[in-house]
Every structure is written in C-alpha cells, then in structure tokens.
Specification:
Order of helices and strands: HHHHH
Number of domains: 1
Helix content: 55-70%
Strand content: under 5%
Oligomer: single chain
Structural class: mainly alpha
Radius of gyration: 20 Å
C-alpha cells in the first residue's frame, strides 16, 4: 500500500511543474500586454482573463504539492514543547480536520463547476472568456488536496509520516 501512496504523491508533486509553467506564462502575458499597450497602443485582449485562469492553475494545482512538501504554514508555538507522541496526535488531528474542511469546500465547488460547464458560463468583456475551466481546475485542485491529506493520514497511521521541510539555519549574530 505504501508503494501506491508514494506513486500518488509523486503524481501530485509533478503537478508543481505545471504551476511553474503557469507562473512563466503569466509573466509572458503581462509583459506582452504592457509592451503592447505602451509601444503599440494595442493591449493583449483577454490577457487579464487568461492570467486569472493561469493563477487558478498555479494556486489550486499547487496546493497538494505544497502540502506534501510541508511548505504550508504551521504554527507550532504551543505544540513544540509537547512530548513527541502528543505532537503526532495533534498533527494527525490537524490532518483529519483539514481533510474535513477541504471536502466541505470541494463538494460544492464540484457541483458549481459541473453547472458552470453545462451552461457554458463565460465572463463579460471584449472577448467572451469561458469561466468553467477555472471552476473545474479549482474543484480538481481541492480534491487532489483531499487525496494528499488522505496520504498524510495513512502515513501517520502506519507510523511513516513525512519529515518536515527544514528551513535554512539562521546565522548567529556576531
């Protein structure tokens, strides 16, 4: 079972590559739009809408990879002085709570994404830009985050939790 979990986690981590490409495309779109406006007096039509779609890809497809690499914020000021077994229990309870919250967000997002797709929802502007792809990506990203939380919970239950990402050590003031 751990081999399956590791394959799923590798797949989720590979989505971070798409997030990097989304970032690069956002930069190109903004540069083209700004250059077009100021040099040629011609903006890049739908550039803002396309950037918004890419931003949804960047954020929501990156959630699971960030969770897997433990690069999300964690507040440990209270639990850092607890015994290790209690820290593990709090971490597991946190994963279960986060899974529940993410399911509560993912379920209505999925329903809204399907409804948006069925009616062909699009935004208003010079170019009619479809909104349903962003809604579908948002829902998929939330379900992938649920999958990562399930992997984290399983790892904790079998006693093989992921190690925390270590920050760069701070240099002492001399």
């Amino acid at each position: 079972m751990i081999a399956l979990i590791e394959r799923v986690e590798r797949m989720l981590l590979s989505l971070s590559i798409s997030c990097g490409f989304a970032t690069l495309l956002i930069v190109f779109i903004v540069v083209i739009d700004v250059a077009g406006r100021f040099l040629l007096n011609t903006p890049f039509h739908s550039g803002v809408e396309l950037s918004e779609l890419l931003l949804v890809i960047l954020v929501f497809l990156g959630l699971a990879a960030a969770q897997q690499q433990r690069q999300n914020y964690a507040i440990e000021i209270l639990t850092q002085n607890f015994p290790a077994w209690l820290q593990q229990a709090f971490e597991l309870a946190g994963y279960v709570a986060c899974l529940f919250i993410t399911i509560v967000l993912a379920w209505p997002s999925s329903k809204q994404a399907f409804a948006s797709f069925e009616r062909g929802e699009s935004g208003f502007g010079i170019v009619s830009f479809p909104l349903w792809p962003a809604r579908i990506i948002l829902a998929i990203g939330l379900w992938l985050l649920c999958l990562q939380f399930l992997c984290d919970i399983y790892r904790h239950v079998i006693g093989m939790p992921r190690q925390k990402a270590h920050a760069a050590p701070e240099k002492a003031f001399e």
